[in-house]
Amino acid sequence: MTSFKRLPSTVTPIHYSITLRPNLTSLTFSGSEDIEVRINSDTNEIVLNSLEIDITSASFTPQNGKKLTPLRIQSSDETETSCFTFSEPLTSGTGVLSIQFTGILNDKLIGFYRSKYQSREGREERYAAVTQFAATDARRAFPGWDEPAIKATFAVTLEVPIDRMTLSNTDVVSEEVLEDDPRVKRVKYSTTPLMSTYLLAFIVGEFDFVESATTDGVRVRVYAPVGKASQGEFALSVTAKAINYYNDYFGISYPLPKMDLIALSDFAYWAMENWGLVTYRETALLMDPKNSSSMSKQSTALTVAHEVSHQWFGNLVTMEWWTHLWLNEGFAKFMEYLCVDQLFPEYQIWMQYVSQTFLPALQLDALHNSHPIEVPIGHPSEVNEIFDEISYNKGSAVIRMLHRFIGDELFRKGMHSYLSLHSYKSAKTEDLWTALQESSNKPVRDVMSTWTLQKGYPVISVTSRRDKDSVILSLTQEKFCADGKLPANESTTRWLIPISVIRASDPNQIAVEVLMDSKTLDIEVPNVSTNEWLKLNASCVGVYRVNYSPELLSLLLPSIVDKTLPPLDRLGLQSDVFALVQSGRTSTPEVLKLMDAFANEDDYTVWNAIDGCLAKLNQLLSHNSEVLQLFHAFGRQLLSKTYSRLGWQPIKGETHLDTLLRGLVINRLISFGDQSVISEAKNLFDSHCAGSHVIPPDLRSAVYRAVAIDCNDKTFDTLLKLYRESDLHEEKRRLSLGLASVKDSNRIAKVLDFALSVPISDVRSNESVLVIISVGLTRNGRDIAWKFFKENKDELRRRYESGTLIGRLVKHITENFCTEDTLQDVQTFFTENAFPGTERTVKQSLESILDSLLQDVQTFFTENAFPGTERTVKQSLESIRVNIDWLSRDLQSIHAFLTKRS
Ligand code: BES
Ligand code: ZN
């Protein structure tokens, strides 16, 4: 890759007047723009971004000067720029650059693209023209300075068929039918605030809407495909409340007179925060009270709160460059929870944060191929690669840690001054630290830079000794590595860690709080009674793992069983032990024993984390039928109490978390082959299809999976039929994911073809990836999905090359490999038939089989580069290695433990 350069600053834009005229049948567009620019120093070139558009003519008119036509216009796909060269120098001052161009309404879900829908009557296929400009695709819709820090104002005009509606960031100022073409109307929008290009949006299509307003009169609308407007009611009410909330929290009012949300049928991301016109995938926004699950409702609330928070953090104050993407995203991920906690206290959303967001960050960041939160970003394709759990999840986790460290009041004060100071401008990570350091008087910058500039996080080993009435805890920090192998050059890495300790005598109160700023630290806890448990990292706020001495750990165990240890601390303890197992610091039977202590657990959040561990073990053991059967029996037993407490029928007045827990438990029992659960699911499905009883939406995912696993042709076709008939994307998604769990290899192949059906008539392009991933996550589907991926590489690349979906696909489809069948055969054979003296040879041959598998993945990606997935591939290879080591270390002891248990 050639070295990447940012645009020269010799010429910068002040105001764009852009007119776009999409043709919704030929799927092309034409456009023209007058950009008022400032020439900052004499030059005879103007360089700006443009990609896959044809510039048909251009001119430059200096203020008070005569119009100049460029000598040449050179466009480069490589640098994604166009350079206009003039025969004479343009001198300092202002002027207007006029450009005429044409482009394609593409099917790649980026830039100015098409989205398919059925017309109101007649079920004719039509296209809407919509945009997705983040991170760097505004340049595909109009030539411009497409960098986040280069802000300007925009006046947008859309010329569209008279029977279509249009939307943009601001309100309409005028609308007129063209005199020379009465089938076309010209819609002009009012000038935007000073903003970045990636936040612009234009939409042309047919939509219905519902409307409401915030307390101070900002008009809020949710647009949905024709006929679905009422499904926008929930998001509408969340949006109005969220704007009220942030107005108050940041002490700065939302600056636009309106806020529109729109559900798009084809959409690459989950949601995008365009200023005043936030776009969503249909599933992310629309709620059908009869058919949407509680989980989906909760997820909509979080998504809306996330995008609304960007209106301040991101839109008003923008990251200076993509290197600071984490700041936008990590912050919004933090804010979404803060806001939803206020709007829906019954969700106990901060508890869910830990299993949903915090733990996945720790999982990825334990790899050697992880990356620091802040990474230098050059070429646009690199942005996609940091659209990951580090930027979002770890980013939010370090902000949550900081929020706790300085307290809400001072945090808020600092935020207010940061946002005020940088409004309508851009900022860097450092600027935020400066503001928060000033408001709090704490060493924010020093603490935070250890978390954002270094990859990974520490594991703290703790031992204890008595000193009269006190206990002295001795802490040592060291970088945590998933494979347990700390590279020499990282052995001295240190973090500044806010440490908290809780104790049995008052579990909900933090007993000691200190900042650990060296490799080791002794902490004195006064008046500790014999056998009193002590635990670090209250509520998993600190981004670290803890490795307790056996004595400390054994004191903690009873507090799990009697639940005197608070839920997030039970969860944290379990998760830490699991991570230590994975890294080889302790053995898998230890964590299985610990899991036993959770048989009486009743908290959804805790189960959610345990479920993640069960899923991981299920993947790991999936090649060995015998051990897998034993493990399933273990799992069924572990879940049995909770299953009998909750059953299948929603209990009137039950908590939101119990509703979520029921779905989780049933789903897991289905994975673990629980026959009574599976047959109950089949009964429900039959009566659902017969129309006599509707499956509660919260249980549909589980039921569809249960009936799909061993289905016959009839059931398979019924699932497909339900899929085609449903109009709700959420339901389609559940059905397609259900289908993805079929066991029979012919049907697996059918599902994969269905996922990638061309033309895209069955599964929308943005949903295909998830279906393929889901197949890849099943035992029988894994190898088939990998083969399918390799065979369809060209189509996959064509569809997704410039987005983030491809990275997700690569990750999930490869990272769970732990062995190929051959490897397993060999291993099982030699486990069952030991030949004394050949142990080393067997190990070596396992290694080489493993190497050939790693080689397969590696070679494929070397020969077939998918830009932007390079790091993901490395991470997957590393995860495979971790899986293999883990399995070869512990398979026997797991077998022995489970056999004894059964
Ligand atoms: N701004 C992002 C989407 C984005 C980021 C697009 C970078 C292109 C490049 C948006 O706010 C976002 O974070 N969307 C998430 C969902 C959100 C609720 C976490 C997504 O689409 O996955
Ligand atoms: Zn975001």
From TrEMBL:
Where's the active site on this chain? 307 (proton acceptor)
The compartments listed are: Cell membrane; Cytoplasm
Q: Where does Zn(2+) bind?
A: 306, 310, 329
Repeat as a keyword of this entry, yes or no, is no
Q: Which UniProt keywords apply?
A: Aminopeptidase, Cytoplasm, Hydrolase, Metal-binding, Metalloprotease, Protease, Zinc
Q: What Gene3D superfamilies does UniProt report for this protein, alphabetically? A: 1.25.50.20, 2.60.40.1910, Neutral Protease Domain 2, tricorn interacting facor f3 domain
Q: Which residues form the Aminopeptidase N-like N-terminal domain?
A: 13-199
Catalytic activity reads: Release of an N-terminal amino acid, preferentially alanine, from a wide range of peptides, amides and arylamides
Membrane topology is: Lipid-anchor; GPI-anchor
Note on how the cofactor is bound: Binds 1 zinc ion per subunit.
**Principal location listed in the UniProt entry:** membrane
Which ranges of the sequence are coiled-coil? none
Residues flagged as site, Transition state stabilizer:
392
A GO BP annotation: proteolysis
Which cofactor does this sequence's record say it needs? Zn(2+)
GO function terms (MF aspect): alanyl aminopeptidase activity; metalloaminopeptidase activity; peptide binding; zinc ion binding
The similarity comment for this entry is: Belongs to the peptidase M1 family.
Under PANTHER family, the record lists: PROTEASE M1 ZINC METALLOPROTEASE (PTHR11533), PUROMYCIN-SENSITIVE AMINOPEPTIDASE-RELATED (PTHR11533:SF174)
Q: What is this protein called?
A: Aminopeptidase
Where does this protein come from, organism-wise?
Answer: Oppiella nova
List the taxonomic lineage. Answer: Eukaryota, Metazoa, Ecdysozoa, Arthropoda, Chelicerata
